[in-house]
Amino acid sequence: MPSRGGSPGSSSLLTAPELAFTDEWRVAAEPAQVWAVVRRVEGWPGWWPSVRSVVPLRNNRTGGAAPGWEFTFRTRLPYTMIFDAELVREEPLVEVQTRITGRVRGSGTWGVRAVDGGTLVHFDWLVRPELAWMRRVTPLARPVFRWNHRQLMAEGGAGLAQRLGARLLSPPVTELRPSHRMYS
After folding, report:
1. DSSP character string of 87-137
2. 22 and 107 in contact (C-beta within 8 Å)?
3. Mean pLDDT across the stretch 94-99?
4. N or C, which end of the chain has less CB nearby within 10 Å?
């Protein structure tokens, strides 16, 4: 099995560049229908081809009591992205916030809301690489990481629409924002 992350005690983590992604899917379906599919994260591999597995973590590795999952994504680049997501906060039918650990560390938030013709699914992903090679190349490889992320997210949006028997109202959007916020 591939390694899960870098050395968390490393001082170079304090200066690792962050990746701050915002993604949007607009789907011609009711928010409650979209929520039901997206919130059942263990079902993602059934409609999102890049998601190889989502395994519930019964004893959360981060030491918390909150539910968590181990995600394995097959990327377009020659690596597999593995990370844990621990549930931090959930407002049913609105938003989920998670703490991310593993090959990347930070936070992930996704939510749904009604828009004309359907539902907007909005993702915010603020992470920094934990793997040494990713930390070293991030300043130069940001456009490649953005391309890779965009491909995965576009595939996810199309898969969600197909699972719902709906159509995308517009092409999925991915934005890589500049970020200067650091995590402890």
Report:
1. EEEEETTTEEEEEEEESEEEEEEEEEEEETTEEEEEEEEEEEE-SHHHHHH
2. no
3. 97
4. C
